[in-house]
Amino acid sequence: MPTNVPPQYRKVEDRYREAETTQAKIAALQEMLSIMPKHKGTDHLKAQLRTRLSKLMAELEGPSAGKSGGRAEPFSLPKEGGGRATLIGPTNVGKSLLLNKATGAKTKVGAYALSTQEPVPGMLPYKDIHVQLVDTPPISNPGTQGRLYGLLRSTDVFVVVVDLSLDAMEQVREVCAALGEWDFRMLAKDEPSPEDDYWKSKPTILVANKADVHGALDQYQILEDEYGSRFPVIMASGEEGVGLDELAEAVFDALQVMRVYTKSPRVKLEDFERVNPLVLPIGSTVIEAASQLHKDFGQNLKYAVLWGQSSKFEGQRVGREHPLVDGDVIEIHGS
Prior knowledge:
By secondary structure, the protein is of the alpha/beta class. The chain is built from ten helices and twelve strands. Helix 2 packs antiparallel against helix 3. Mean pLDDT is 87; it is low at 64-70.
């Protein structure tokens, strides 16, 4: 049976053949698998590509330390909360301490290189929602790069962390070069993510850590002057817990999401508590909110009663396609 792969696949295949590094080959194979049509004619080709990918991953990660005894793959983290932001950076820049102070997650903090060998998730609070924040091994560590690539593909926001006690610009360039080897693209402020390239184009935040050290302000100013017009640049200190609120707000903004509250018709507005909102992409409609709450609500939705900034007046009756904004309260009515 013919494979009938699209022209886009052929272009990526050419890039795979021309790739000179293991990272570039893995990136191309991942993309080939993601765009390959799903039918019986491609089953054999998929198996071949997965075999190649497995060998390249093993080559990149080096010799195994032994069998894991059935332990789950630590880099395959389930997403939680309103989205995922991933801390990326060179070794010993303070990512683990930042995660610990921002989320309370138990992390291994050490003043030595490569103290983090596996990703560690935590839940970052922002107003009345939580976002998953993930600490990762150093991006330049060859022993974990192959598995880290898959984790970065599934993240929503890159949070690049650098150490203000060292050359901050050089650290940013190191991270950019590493991400470039995987064909990732760092999106600037308010730059929309291409719908056909979501896996590789990520909103990016720069966190200048160790603001408590001597000379930190000078290094921060250099970063701000160079990158401030493109990315949010946050001055932080994991040691002192500084900049964590600004980080949470920047992550929420980068996610391009909003909070929508759902009220039961049996509850009076004055008794309604705004807690546990739905987290939806900006621009979502009433029908999309109802469907996320429960598929039956979406299928049976007739109209909604609305309170909030997107309404012309409080308690307005709106239809299925009415666009919502952050903080809206809706009461769903079905047929």
